[in-house]
Amino acid sequence: MKKVLFFILVVTSALGCKKNSDKVSHKHTNALIKETSPYLLQHAHNPVNWEAWSPDVLNKAKKEDKLLLISIGYAACHWCHVMEKECFEDEEVAQVMNENFINIKIDREERPDVDQIYMDAIQMISGQGGWPLNIVALPDGRPFWGATYVPKDNWIKSLEQLAELYKNDKQRVTDYAKDLANGLQTINLVENNVDSELYSLEQLDSAVQNWTQYFDTFLGGHKRAPKFMMPNNWDFLLHYATTMDKPEIMEFVDTTLTRMAYGGVYDHVGGGFSRYAVDVKWHVPHFEKMLYDNGQLTSLYAKAYAVTKNDLYKDVIAETIAFVKDELLDKSGGFYSSLDADSLDEHGNLEEGAYYIWTEEQLINLLEDDYKIFQEYFNINSYGHWEEENYVLIRDKSDEEIAKSFDIDIETLRKTIRKSLSKLKNERSKRPRPRLDDKILTSWNGLMLKGLVDAYRYLENDAYLDLALKNAEFIEQELIKNDGSLYRNHKNGKSTINAFLDDYATVIDAYFALYEVTFDKKWLNSAKNLLDYAQKHFFDDASGMFFYTSDQDQSLIRRTIEVDDNVISSSNSMMAINLYKFDKLFPSEGYGETSNQMLKNVQKDFDRRAQGFSNWLHLVLFNNKNFYEVAIIGDDYRDMAQQISKVYLPNSILAGSKKNGNLDLLKNRKVPGKTLVYICQEGACKLPVSTAKEALEQL
């Protein structure tokens, strides 16, 4: 690719610049005032003439032959706020932007399809990316320049140079944009691999062994900073360790989950996890709290509890769900997106983490006689110190160790800690709260719904199922359209954006899981309808994969095919697993063939980077180990199912009914007066048994 980079300025970090409290006077108002996204609304009174992303705006740019300036961020993004304060609220900056560009603001959480393309672009240009993501593109949307955070003076200088360059040497800019667009197409290609065999267990063992060199066996996670939560990594390794009998891998998973729960990345006062830790010991978080992390981690800790019966995991689940219910639940049953990293400190300045941190003096005054135990428990010392006089609560010892050091029993210790945390929570409630991003995203709700279902399945708490059902009904009523498609977003009764593949994949997965614990056929049927819609409108015959965007929506530069598992599993890996499971209940639909072909298309990358494809690796275990369909028929089918399903059995699915059902797996199974369990593979079943114990022995 041509290296026409002399005009590229990429700045990815900067010092300071605190943001003051939000302005109340509205000297300016732009087109974003019509939007529902809190992130876009934050910019609705900038002097910049922002527009939301739409075909009309792109057509306007083409008609006027005006460059696009596309700025992408999200509501909980710290550096997005900094750049808004320094640049987008500044009238001198706005004048340069308004004169030379069509300015578009995008909430990356609403429009991940656009964000994916421009993030790839900036990484091709500079080798790195982040948010805010600022792109300058031709009027047709093809990018040729990109930067993340840029201070005011450099921002003005860069924009003036870019505008002048386009005016005086348009062909040069166009040639570079063309080359970059071709590169964006190339890096997204997936070949339809029809010749290879499916990945073997021997290959999987080798891939995991290569992965282990990155394990931090002392502090958990990977040997690097920052440390992201990466729930799909530990979810697969839990599956692998239990299925393949790998105690050393299970020990690593246990260490990771324990250290995350001990760390400052977990909110010991209010429950729930922040997005990542900036250090190797999970201590200091980037304080934003995202629904998608907490949904996935609820699932993960529930499965780990089923394996270990570790009470720490049970407490984390309960506290995380309580946080989500208290802070992120809309009255409609949908879940909001996130809490901001920033909040007002005692001086009225917007500071990252201000809501969550403590000084030693504050803790001594609040806790009085209980302070000494609390100090030891949460390391109000050099280990727990953050910056200046502030501490972020972090554990590094078990309850047993702390109790022994104070010569008290475990229950006395826990009672003291609970009382202390309650005092802190009450005190914290008096502080200015972090800003809430109250838009509702379908895929993130799907992840949280799955988390609640798993929590109910493995902990048997009816309150979790009640909350799950409320959310599932919300999705059905507000996010599924009459034509069977989904919306991406919802706020105040309004949905505006068509869904993407991850929205379908997560809701299908969650509804299937909900069927497995309720046996209400409604959820299975809804999931299948969504699966069939996705196959019709997202599937690409040429690659054998699913596009991220529907054929009903306008395409920009390319239709992305997402395969890498990141902080959220890739939409294609989730769809491949959905197809695999649905094939067990609907074997004549061809779902299994599609799933296997998708796996073949990506498996060449497993050897070198298993952690980047961890959700795909479940399919390797499904295909190479026994996978069971469990059918339960009879009057007591629910009780029998609950006894079986609370055991961690990742290589299985459940179906149940009081009488013969219309699923192949449930036909002609009923025996009057008995409740029977059939353990089947590919529809061929063993002799039925009448107790959960016998069924589990067969499994």
From TrEMBL:
Top-level taxon in the UniProt lineage: Bacteria
UniProt domain Spermatogenesis-associated protein 20-like TRX: residue ranges: 29-184
InterPro entries: 6-hairpin_glycosidase_sf, Glyco_hydro_76, Ssp411, Ssp411-like_TRX, Thioredoxin-like_sf
Signal peptide: none
PROSITE patterns assigned to the protein according to its UniProt record, in alphabetical order: PROKAR_LIPOPROTEIN
Protein's name in the database: Thioredoxin domain-containing protein
Organism: Flagellimonas abyssi
